[in-house]
Amino acid sequence: MSIKNTAQNYGTIAKWLHWSTAVLFIGSYGSIYYSRWFLEPRTPESFNALQIHLSIGVTVAVVVVLRILWRSANPMPKEEPGSKLAHLAAHLGHYALYAVIIVMPITGYLGTGSDINYFFMFELPKFESTMLYQPLVENGLGMTFSDFEKPMDFIHKDLLGAWIVWLLILGHVLAALYHHFVKNDRTLKKMTTGK
Q1: Which residues pair with 92 in a beta bridge?
Q2: In this model, does residue 77 exceed pLDDT 80?
Q3: Parallel, antiparallel, or unpaired for β 122-124 and 116-118?
Q4: How would you class 88 by CB atoms within 10 Å of its CB: exposed for 0-12, middle for 13-18, buried for 19 or more?
């Protein structure tokens, strides 16, 4: 198996980055839903679950940067046969997924009122504590953190987190299964076994 992409398959690094992103998103959602469904608010346990969620979000941001760098340096495998409309839909779906995996960590970080204890190893300051906050938010936008936090939370939690992420992931999974079981092409195999 090649480390780099080939005309037939994604390489080991592209596969690792893709599946790592998927696992991280599952972990991120799992930690926050665990906190909401099973823990009392404002307890040490719910704070720890939030810290895991935030830590995973930072990790997603790093993996996304690596994905973009790797994708820009590696040619994509050849597309499977299909109509121009199907290829356009696939490209638009992938661009939307990339947009979401970029915007989610950014809005999550910008809107959190808590420092991030990265997997309980070291602290990362919340955005409000950074040198960028005052010139961008207070001086530039004329907003308090409370005012700034509301649109960030809306985008992160209510708009993307509650609906759009799930719809895009569902569409991505259904498209992969459609290609594998209905079209019998190599779309899913390119990102899994390569055979």
Answers
A1: none
A2: yes
A3: antiparallel
A4: exposed
Task: Write the DSSP string, 76-99.
Answer: PPPPPS--HHHHHHHHHHHHHHHH
Residues 145, 128 contacting (CB under 8 angstroms): yes
Task: Round to the nearest angstrom and report the end-to-end CA distance of the chain.
Answer: 10
61 falls in which pLDDT band (50, 70, 90)?
Answer: very high
Q: How far apart are CA 193 and CA 195, in angstroms?
A: 5
Spell out the long-range contacts of 4-7 with Cβ–Cβ below 8 A and sequence spacing 24 or more: 4/74, 5/74, 5/75, 5/76, 5/77, 6/77, 7/75, 7/77, 7/78
| DSSP element (H, E) containing 39 | none
Does pTM top 0.90 for this prediction? yes
Axis-axis angle for helices 12-38, 44-73 (nearest 10): 160
DSSP 113-182: -S-EEETTTEEE--GGGSTTHIIIIIIII---HHHHHHHHHIIIIIIIIIIIHHHHHHHHHHHHHIIIII
Q: In angstroms, what CA-CA distances link 50 with 102, 115, 118, 129?
A: 20, 11, 11, 18
Which residues are 118's β-sheet partners?
122
